[in-house]
Amino acid sequence: MSPELANLILASTLDTLYMVAVAALIGTLVGLPLGIFLATSGKGELFEAVAVNRVLGLVVNAARSTPFIILVVAIIPFTRLIAGTSIGTTAAIVPLSIAAAPFIARIVEAAVREVDQGLVEASLAMGATPLQIVRKVLIPEALPGLVLGVTLAIVSLLSNSAMVGAVGGGGLGDLGIRYGYQRFMPEVMVIVVIVLILLVQSVQTLGETLARRVNRRLRRS
């Protein structure tokens, strides 16, 4: 491997990590409260708002069911408005974040709904407010599932970040298309695939390890 190619791979890997990290952060900041609300706003629940719950559920489902590559193209005007351009790693963060938020929201909703409702009822009986229950009961009890959910979301973002390279998003996907496909350099494509696999394995291992540690801590307490 030439030094020039090695530098390109390193730069593209860093671009991918930048896109995924920022998109995961934004997606979590939006998806976490949205998922908690979806899990606690049904009939008879802490923040009962059935109509709002249904509307938000439809929006989340619509966003999740839209193929990512179509989403990237469809929101190009919005991406330009936010990032000032529709090309490059910073611009790619916009569709990645929009795709991540509803994905994380549904994962959070599922994790929160797994919490024993007896704990919620006991907390209400002791006079805890809904917000206190969310902070001190639901989130701590659902934490292992939340960690695994965010891990899954990051893995999905790594896949999407490679896909966004097809429309000039930068990163490893862009490198694979420009050099591996357009310049007939299959070795570059192979290296890109290997790097992506290593990134996915690293994220998955880290997430599972963190979830186990959090779970053990909860059991001790």
From TrEMBL:
Alphabetized CDD domains for the sequence: TM_PBP2
Keywords assigned by UniProt, alphabetized: Cell membrane, Membrane, Transmembrane, Transmembrane helix, Transport
Transmembrane segments: 17-39, 51-76, 82-105, 145-168, 188-211
Membrane topology: Multi-pass membrane protein
GO BP terms in the entry: D-methionine transmembrane transport
One Pfam family in the UniProt entry: BPD_transp_1
Domain ABC transmembrane type-1: 13-207
Xref: SUPFAM superfamilies: MetI-like
GO cellular component, one term: plasma membrane
Subcellular location(s) of the protein: Cell membrane
Similarity comment text for this entry: Belongs to the binding-protein-dependent transport system permease family. CysTW subfamily.
Protein name, entry field: D-methionine transport system permease protein MetI
Gene (UniProt): metI
